[in-house]
Amino acid sequence: MKAFFTSFIFALSLYAGMREAQAAGCGKVSIAQMRWSSAGIAANFDKFILEKGYGCSVTIVNGDTLPTFTSMNTSGTPDIASEFWVKGFKPQLDDAIKAGRLVEGAEILADGAIEGWYIPKFIADANPDIGSVQDALRHPELFPDTYNPSRAAVYNCPESWACEISTRNLFRALNADKLGFALIDSRTPDDFDASIARAFDNKVGWIGYYWSPTSVIGKYDMKLLNFGVPHDQVEWDACTSVRGCPNPKVNAYPVSQAFTLITRSFADRAGPVMNYLKARSWDNETISQVLAWQDENGEDNENAAHYFLENYEELWSHWVPADVAEKVKASL
Question: What is the pTM of this model?
Answer without folding.
Answer: 0.77
